Amino acid sequence: MEDNREKIESFYRLWTSELDRLFSGYIYDEDGKPNPTRHIFSYYLALLEKFAGNRLEEVEKINLLSGIRGVGKTTLLAQLYYAPKFISPSRKSNFGNVLAQDYEVFYLDVSRLSGEGISLHEFFNYYQEINNIRFVDLKKKLLILLDEVHYDERWGLFFKNLFDTTKSHKNILVIATGSSALKIKLNPDLSRRALLEELYPLKFNEYEILKDNIYPQRGLSDDIVGAILASKDAKELFQFYKNRQNEISKYFSKLSPNAEEDFLYFGGFPFILRLKNKKSIVFELVSGVIDKLITKDLLEMRRFSSQTISKIKDLLYLIASSDSTDIDKLCNALKLDYRPVRGVLDALIQAGILVEVKSYGQKFAKVRKPIKFLFISPSLRISILNGIIPPEVKGKILEDYLALLFSKDFWKKAKNYGDFEVMYDSSSGGADFVLRIGKDKKIIIEVGFGKESNGVKQIENTGKIIGGYNYAIVISYKKGTPELVNDKIIRLPFKLWLAI
After folding, report:
1. For residue 147, which of 177, 105, 190, 192 has the smallest C-alpha distance?
2. pLDDT value, residue 367
């Protein structure tokens, strides 16, 4: 017992002495200027202001932020640690309590703690003792920032006990990050005691904000999503685009000539923005993200045989390089049984790398058909293929980006309209996506790089299979002007979706 206490004390002293040096690389760029913040920083800054102003709700005390490696979770915690440095002059009047910083703040990398064989429970018992405080009756406000919390096997129990212990006051706020699998492991007891957010790879507009400080018109993204989901027909959606076309064109006129392509190839992860000669090493760095996911996160989530683990990168390559995914064909190519292949696919979905899009068959009833697997960022697919994209896979890059938008923006907005489901038509000549909003509304989407005539036939085919639809959208990468093809079909440029 005494040995363990000495180990915790030694870790604590070393950790607190190194913290400022550890964070310097996360909060400053090479010129010593504070790094730009992602959109989600504003969400947590508002939460911190409520906390500092004693207005925190009980359920807001424990906040979990999941996300795949490389999306900026540690940078976010570093920016929250030094929150006053990252409040722009124009917004200072909104965050008086944060600027006053009348609260203590403590940051801990749980992976380092776990590496020393110390649990969260043991560490924070020591922390309370050494600081002469008790969580049960804290007199001063304390913000605890925990990174990679999933490395502690009993993190859920730790948070449950912390929540229950601090019910009598509003003086503690916890923001903890972990792998995307956090949401899978969130037990029912803790789900009532914690809020869960997810940090996704960069969208195009966020990439441009971080890279060149170029902002779209305020509210434009939200308005576009709302129009796509809520328009009563193709004509109404077409009119929305015509009304906002100048606004969208003005935004794109500020960007560099190859901004869209550079983003799709290299722009999914914030760490890319620091690289000067990014094209030479970007694929290697993103591959490193995938390697760490395989060697650490997946092994923590599931037990796989060494033979299965050795085939995961091959599996990802097969998905990245093909237009459609048939699991039986994957099994044959990898020389693995169905169960381990399906297990790996499920783990990659839970880890946040892949998005599963299920098929719909006759009369909109689910049937056993091939499943479409998309990547949560185009940068992942392109890095796996090392930048060499077969012509038949080019459209998949755009589909990957839509998968990100559907997972993030559309899902949140669609909750206002009831259920939201993303599917595809697996029949020959079927459309890329079918969105179901509420009970009855169906929107068909076809994506392509191709000519003007492409897409309409696929939509008509799918319309017959699913028993009708409200309206359909053909997304064209090359064609920049909108077009009302007929009463039910509209052609919209991919730029519109990049502006979301």
Report:
1. 177
2. 47
